[in-house]
């Protein structure tokens, strides 16, 4: 049932920096579908950070190249009858060996399957293949470059360093005291169990095809946890952060308007953080902005008169107004080149 045609086609996509994405296409004779296997060859040998395990793995590298195309089930409706005959429950059990049957792979091969009526023989169409080739190759190149950029950034993040390029220095004040102390990959299940990620899950912005991470930012006794959803289409689609601050109790966006404002600084105002095109520095700039807004949050807190001694977080940032309105919103917006903070 799963027999492959003896010939396969290998396509090497070379990028300017000498990195190569090698795609091998197979045709499954009985199922009348095509599959692809991916392999990345880098110009220089990469040391793999622990959290970057899934970035270049053949299973997730090409996932959702086009929205919703996760390649986990067969695009040919007729296959289900064939599977039932021989007792195959799902094709995904065999994908490590066979490759993934993404919809774009069928189109490159000139195959188009109608959704409703299963047809056993679908003729290959050269025009269909030609019309999709250019766009798909562009997306494949961009995907490889964005994943390699993330791979490099994760190596820094695991050592507690948030890399900020010279083109993006103006987005942040010269002195930021809060520090990233942990960056690690987590599973979809671990993410879904966190009490402060419910809104993201309910909005349908977190699926099991996405990649998940946990960042921990600290300053003194304050610890800010940030759960991150990375869409496979990064950086066209921005990562989404959910925050939980542990300092004098637990504070999340559901109960503290200022934590929600910090989330919106990275989730809503992300376009300011793209940096030079094509925006591969978005994630690291978002993390640096989180360090910055945590500083503002802590420094603008009123001093508790019942505690003796100096304030734990002396105010070092220049703010026009410390709080605004009945919700006591803090000034999270950094103004360059004057260097002061104001309200959005």
TrEMBL record:
Superkingdom of the organism of origin: Eukaryota
A single GO molecular function term of this UniProt record: mRNA binding
Main location: nucleus
Compartment list: Nucleus
One Pfam family named in its UniProt record: FmiP_Thoc5
Keywords: Nucleus
GO CC field: THO complex part of transcription export complex
GO biological process, one term: mRNA export from nucleus
Family: Belongs to the THOC5 family.
PANTHER family: FMS INTERACTING PROTEIN, THO COMPLEX SUBUNIT 5 HOMOLOG
Protein's name in the database: THO complex 5
Species for this entry: Nothoprocta perdicaria (Chilean tinamou)
Biological classification of the source: Eukaryota, Metazoa, Chordata, Craniata, Vertebrata
